[in-house]
Amino acid sequence: MKKVVLAFSGGLDTSCAVKWIQDQYGLEVICFSAFIGEVKDKNELRRKALAGGAKKIFVEDLKAEFASDFLIPALWAQARYENGYPLATALGRPLIAKHLVRIAEQEKAGYVAHGCTGKGNDQVRIEVGVRTLNPDLKIIAPLREWEFKTREEEIEYAEQHKIPVDASKKSPYSLDKNIWGIAIEAGVLEDAWREPPADAYVMTRGLDKVPAKPKYVVIEFEAGVPVKVDGVRKPLVKLIEDLNATAGAYGIGRFDQIENRLVGIKSREVYEAPAADVLLKAHHELESMVMDREFLHYKKVLSEKYAELVYYGLWFSPLKTALDAFFASNQKRVTGKVRFKFDRGHAIPVGRESKYSLYHEKLATYSKGDTFDRTMAEGFLKLWGLPYEGMASAPMRRDHKQSKT
Ligand code: ARG
Question: Is the pTM of this model over 0.85?
Fold first, then answer.
C-alpha cells in the first residue's frame, strides 16, 4: 500500500485529514508531529492519530534544532516582516517541510500531506520547501480539496468516524505557537478597527496586570548567540523560553498589524513574541556598537529582503542561503552585553558593552579629555561639500559657455 506522511497537530483539521486521506486516496497514513514550542501530550496525540486510522505516528521534540538552525539565522538577519512580526510561524514551516521529507524518504512514502488552508502562507512554505528538497514527493492538501464548508460539518464527520475532538477547548481564535512567538487570527480580530480583547493574548500580560516596578535584565552574547541572562548561562532553548516568561510578564512583544500575505490578501494579524522582540533588539544594539556605518546601513536593506524570503516560503532558496552567509560574516564581533529596562510593555535598551566596541568615549565626548582633532574637520568639510557648491542658487555652473555648433 502506498504511504503518506501527514504533518499532524492533533487539531480538528488534521485529525479529520487522517481518515479523509485514507478514504479519498487509499493511502496508509503516517503522522508526524514536531514540538517546536507548544508541547502537547504525546499520548493524546498518538491516541487521536490512531483513532483516525493512522498506522504510526512520529512525535519529535525539535526545539533545539529549531533554535540553532532557524532562529539564530533569523536573529542574525534581524528578520521582521513589515517592521514588526518576527516570523515565528514562517520560520517553523521549513523545519516541518524538512522533516516531512526526511520521514517520507525513510518510510518510502510517495506522498506528504499538511493541514494548511488554501488562503494562507503556510501552504506555500510547506509545499515550496518540500518541492525544493524532494520534487518527487506528491503533496496532498485536504483543506483545499475537501467538501466541508464549516467547522460544524467537520465535527460531524469526526463524530461519525469516532475521531476524538475536544471542541469545548477550542479557542475562538486560530493560533499557531512556537518558542519564537504566537500568531493569533480570526474571530473578532477580523474587524480591523476593534482592539484585540484581553483573552486573545496568550504569552503576554496586559498593561493592567504588569508589575509596577521596572526590572533590569542583562543579555549576554557570544559570537552572535545569546548565552546568558543576568549572568546565568543557559542553553538557547531554555534562554528563549525563560525570556518569553520574563518579558511576557511585562507585556513586552505584542504586535497588531495589517499584513500583506503572499496570496495577495491583506490580513489583520495579532502576534506575541516577547523573547524574540527582546533578543532582536539586543542583537541590534550590540551590532550597532561593534560594526561600522556602511555595514549597518546596507544590512538594513538585506534584512528586509531576508524577511520577505522567509515569509514567502523561500527558506531553501539560493538567495536566502547567500544572505545567511552575509549575516554570519560579522557575528564574531557581536560579543558583549546589553542592559534592558523592562517597563510596562517596553523593553528599553539602556546600556551596552563589548570588547569589540567601536564606540570611543574619548572621541565622542564634549567634555574634558577629548582626543578628537577638530582641525581635521575643515578640510574634510571642503571636500565633502565640493560637489554641491552653489547648486541650490545656480543650477547651471557660472563658468558655463555655450558651445558654438
Ligand atoms: N500571518 C502569519 C504568517 O503568515 C501567521 C500565520 C498563522 N498560521 C496559522 N496556522 N494560524 O506567518
Answer: yes
